[in-house]
Specification:
CATH topology: Alpha-Beta Plaits
Number of helices: 2
Helix content: 25-40%
Mean pLDDT: 97
Radius of gyration: 12 Å
Shape: globular
CATH class: Alpha Beta
Number of strands: 5
Length: 90
């Protein structure tokens, strides 16, 4: 069963390749969705897949790429997305 979740990540998450690394991690897990920076300095993404895949992604988001300093990951249910693959949005 495919479910979708929205994630908002705060901390030092912009300018550290967070979007590209998230795209790679999500794709490796077989998830679909998108990731983008927000004007408030957070990274926002919606990922769709099964619960186990999403839990693995969430664990990764708490660490992020090498130079990131994640302070918070907020998770909420999201509506189904019609995206093939996992894309970076600008």
């Amino acid at each position: 069963m495919t479910i979708c979740r929205q994630y908002r990540i705060s901390g030092r998450v912009q300018g550290v390749f967070f979007r590209a690394s998230t795209q790679s991690a999500a794709s490796d897990l077989g998830l679909t969705g998108w990731v983008r920076n927000t004007a408030s300095g957070e990274v926002e993404l919606v990922a769709c897949g099964d619960d186990a895949q999403l839990m693995q992604l969430e664990r990764w988001l708490w660490q992020g790429p090498r130079h990131a300093q994640v302070e918070q990951v907020v998770v909420a249910p999201a509506e189904a997305q019609t995206v093939s693959g996992f894309e970076i949005r600008y």
